[in-house]
Amino acid sequence: MKDVRSAEILCVGTELLLGDIINTNASYISRRLAALGIPVYRQAVVGDNPERMRQAIAESFSRSDCLILTGGLGPTCDDITKEMVSEYLGLELELNEEALERMKSYFSSTGRTMTKNNEKQAMSPRGARVLQNDWGTAPGFVIERDDKTAILLPGPPIELEPMWRERVEPYLFERSDSVIVSKNIYILGMGESAVEEKLHDMMMELTNPTVAPYAGNGECRVRVSARAKDAETASRMCDDLIAEIRKTEVGEFIYGIDVDSMENALVLSLREKGLTLACAESCTGGLIAKRITDISGSSQVFLGGCVTYACSAKEKLVGVSHETLEKYGAVSEQTAREMARGVRLALGADIGIATTGIAGPGGGTPEQPVGTVYIAVSTAEGEEVKLLTLSPKRSREFIRICAATNAMKLALNT
Amino acid sequence: MKDVRSAEILCVGTELLLGDIINTNASYISRRLAALGIPVYRQAVVGDNPERMRQAIAESFSRSDCLILTGGLGPTCDDITKEMVSEYLGLELELNEEALERMKSYFSSTGRTMTKNNEKQAMSPRGARVLQNDWGTAPGFVIERDDKTAILLPGPPIELEPMWRERVEPYLFERSDSVIVSKNIYILGMGESAVEEKLHDMMMELTNPTVAPYAGNGECRVRVSARAKDAETASRMCDDLIAEIRKTEVGEFIYGIDVDSMENALVLSLREKGLTLACAESCTGGLIAKRITDISGSSQVFLGGCVTYACSAKEKLVGVSHETLEKYGAVSEQTAREMARGVRLALGADIGIATTGIAGPGGGTPEQPVGTVYIAVSTAEGEEVKLLTLSPKRSREFIRICAATNAMKLALNT
């Protein structure tokens, strides 16, 4: 069995070309392949169109020995991925009884009745390895023909991702001769081009490990990747380089390594310290609580919070004084301070954080333009308030995300 | 000037091939092109690699007369999109003073100092139309050569999307000879394959307008698209078909047309009715409040809410009685009922909604498996509670999204 040297990803679906859905499968598969040391040279999307699918399949196989296809395995009549790949590889489709049985039992287990059109999903290219789908109805397939490998997976990410982890990776592991280990350095407070300038020489000179900065949602992430025979060696190579980066001016802005996100870094740190958190949100409107509770197990450290969107809510839920709101306004250092303290006391938490500001697009004034946000943290020792002045040109979403991330950073540093 | 008959999208960036970021640009551009009646036959992603970029550019132009490229216009040395396209079209790059000045003023307006490497972004292919970037530093370009058009846009969606709306569309509008109008029917409570079966004949027989169902996050959406010379005609064609669909079994599950999302449908309806809303969230942990406040102007109808994640928070913030929690537990009809009423009274809102359940992956029991969620709505007339039993195989994220969407639906129907 030859090793997979490179792969291409072909996502099938007119809904992708119409922009009705975002292609998260390509990024998911690419990320997992990188970890296996299998480079992806091309991602492509075509519609459920026989002619264009034929062309794309042929093109991909002309460049890569492994083609991963997603989508078009479903029950509807315009799902033709399996048919097109079988045609290209010269294989016939036959009914797979086992797959059919599994599909029937899946439907009954989810209390639904299987419609006739679903049976189409149990047709299998002759000689293909069927990848059982425990998360949906359409099974996947691995087809090996000569030196070509086609891997077919269902389109819904909720099925594709577990299928990839539990069906495809065990198969690919044997076939990969080296691994890439990547570690991510999480940075808040220094922009991408500034980070890039500080690390420019490293980026230019190094080939293994490599350094690459990425920006997003007001944060910067530096990805360090090393390739080696085994994961231990590659991991050590990354650690050594990260130690170097910590010594640069970037160092002071690093808030974690492989922490995935600020919310995850915060939950991990609170769990370590044995502290509890509560939040009072105005302009972020529940985003902080949502991001923290995205993390399974956050209930150990997160007691809850208040979304005090209206002024009345600020008084009723977290006891901001009417005078403060009258005198300083809802978007003020004083209100942020009282919100953080109020929610901490209301819930008996060790730490309270708060946000109040103008997310836009409306509501800005010359004195307080869109992007003006006060964030506060409160502990038994007292309160700390910080003013963020984000560009009014930024979107409502961006301003809310930045405000939430920075507020969590305040709690992280407590 | 010839009309753009079809387009391809080429997104450039090694970070896309490594799966470090999700390609939202391809879906955004595709969606906007569809509305202009310009079909997209292919989306592709390549890395910042000269050889592979050359190949991809040549391939695309062999199929389509318009190629839209995103990314690789930035300041870093591996940003080479502009260079590769200019090479293919045989154009030289020259410094664009105007673009340079704009970039300098952008930096000062956002209070940052422009690093030297940024100047690279002001280089322009000879004869190209420069697309001013008021949302970032890198300008875009439209290059017309013979019958080929290349449109280059910066990669960050926060820059690309306004650039598309305000720079590219005015340019493309003149060039399109027909429009596609699409309308989306939002459905909750009936699955995709069931919807597809009910509408199967329409899907098969109709070519203009067309019908296509999509599933996602526990909802189903049916997209109706019509092509005509003018928007009014196409719009009327869509409306007639939607009227037909309302008469089918799907009809009763429709909650809106072009409402974008359940949260938007809810905010619009509350604004119409002049009602205010408050929410108490346990398993959704702020997701409802976050989704509602994603909508600019939601402050008119949304007063705020409580994230009562811990049991103590349920008592302290929304007055769930200790006895109820003791006797029935945090995940119970009674608790959901008291949460909805409690938050409504606490904030003096017209409507209160609540969620309490087990989002998983941990926390499930034989009696209450992961996916068990109680949702409640409270008004002056009283409370209504509904039990959702989602598949324990579903992800934490999916269960939280479904719970939030269904809770908002309860409020929408009030």
Q: Could you describe the 3D structure shown?
A:
- Two copies of one chain form a homodimer.
- Chain A has three domains: 7-173, Molybdenum Cofactor Biosythetic Enzyme, Chain A; 179-257, Alpha-Beta Plaits, CATH 3.30.70.2860; 262-412, CinA-like (Maf protein, Alpha-Beta Complex).
- Chain A is built from 15 helices and 17 strands.
- Chain A has helices at residues 14-17, 24-35, 50-63, 81-89, 97-109, 157-173, 192-198, 200-205, 231-246, 262-273, 287-293, 311-318, 322-328, 333-347, 396-412; strands spanning 7-12, 40-46, 66-70, 93-95, 123-125, 129-131, 140-145, 148-153, 179-187, 210-216, 219-228, 254-257, 277-281, 302-307, 351-357, 372-379, 382-389.
- In chain A, helix 2 runs parallel beside helix 6 (157-173), helix 3 crosses helix 4 (81-89) and helix 10 packs parallel to helix 15 (396-412).
- Chain A is globular.
- At the A-B interface, helix 1, helix 2, strand 2, helix 3 and helix 7 of A face helix 1, helix 2, strand 2, helix 3 and helix 7 of B.
Brief account:
By secondary structure, the first copy, chain A, is of the alpha/beta class. Helix content of chain A is 40%, strand content 25%. In chain A, α3 (50-63) crosses α4 and α10 (262-273) runs parallel beside α15.
CATH level 1 name of the largest domain in chain A: Alpha Beta
Mean of pLDDT of chain A: 92
Count all strands of chain A and give the number.
17
The two chains with the largest interface, and their residue counts, are:
A-B, 105 and 105 residues
Features:
homodimer; 414 residues; alpha/beta; Molybdenum Cofactor Biosythetic Enzyme, Chain A; Alpha-Beta Plaits; Maf protein; six-stranded mixed beta sheet; five-stranded mixed beta sheet; 17 strands; globular
